[in-house]
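tool_call: predict_structure(chain=1)
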Amino acid sequence: MVILPPKRFTVGKGELHNGCIGEVGRVRSPLNRGFAMIRAATLADIRRLVEIRGSVHENRLSDPNRVTISDYEWHIAYATVHVWEEDGVIKGLAAGDPRNGSIWALFVDPAYEGCGIGQALIRVACGSLVAAGHRAARLSTDPGTRAERFYLRNGWLANGRTEKGEVIFTKNL
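tool_result:
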């Protein structure tokens, strides 16, 4: 478990959004009310994980049955699904797949986007891939999305397209 102290983010014009507005024109992480933690998900968390994954505005599953409860159970048991929890509420999740070095999930509840949760979770998920022996990570996402811009900003390299047209990203770990 990682306990994270409160932290503030400075912002430029037009970046105050999503309920993260702090005093004097600064964006605050939602954890400014106390402490947040990144912890391993448990089976009891699956309902909330499914809810977050289904609530995102981009990169929605065209077939929600494509990711099953069994998939969550497997990742919780063998891969570690990391969750950002604050005040007893899970606000985001991330998981790397140790079988192939891919990022299986990175999702943040839309009410908390833009507050640094995704940044923290992707680092932890990549760390779990390193611990599993991988030297590079892989993922795919829809082109022209905030997710694509997020990965490019964070040093991921576009490396082709999937059969469905998603951008394939890789990153050396």
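agent: The chain has a mean pLDDT of 81. Proceeding to next step.
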